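Appendix B, example 12.
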Amino acid sequence: MTAAVMCAQAIRRASAKVLHGFPSGWRNSVMPPERTTFKVGDGHAAHEVAVSYRSRRDGTFAMTIGEAERTVAAYSAGEGGADLEIDGRRVQFAVAGSGDRWFVHGADYDVELVELPRLPLPEQYEIKGGLTAPMPGNVLATHIAEGDAVAEGQLLLVLEAMKMQHRITAPFDGTVKEVHVAEGQQVDNGALLVLLEESEPSGEEPR
């Protein structure tokens, strides 16, 4: 996984349209480390592993994979493979990338990884009647339950984020089909909160 991360950042840095000469994740002030998540395995054995890394002034990287912390130096990394020093041990890997998939061959193992998107893909949340969290936050209050009839503009939920309260209201008249959160729950940006079903037009002519 270390090899896949180093190759990915090297390839992206080389193809950058701006600030080509700056290291990946460079800032002129202290910023959080870069993060990515991989899916490992298939079927019931599949699981996600979070990786974070930050470049240091000496050219090495401080990397955390799951709960494990390590220091990584890259002698070379990019298309085809990586020559790395991981916690003082020098190792070589053959690495091939195709889209979001990475295939890594090391001296002791072979592994296939799927790199998950860093941000939610819009199409994942384009659910008709689905209301999503505008940012990470805490559910302060819920004012509806499944099966409730709601009117356009009616208050459904209150989120607290960035020390501010955000009102989630009904965009149309309808019925609550699903409630995916409860009071006190932490939610991520883009998380599905409520699923509504829009009421059918009555068909009555206005008087």
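The chain has one helix and 16 strands. The first helix runs from residue 2 to 14.
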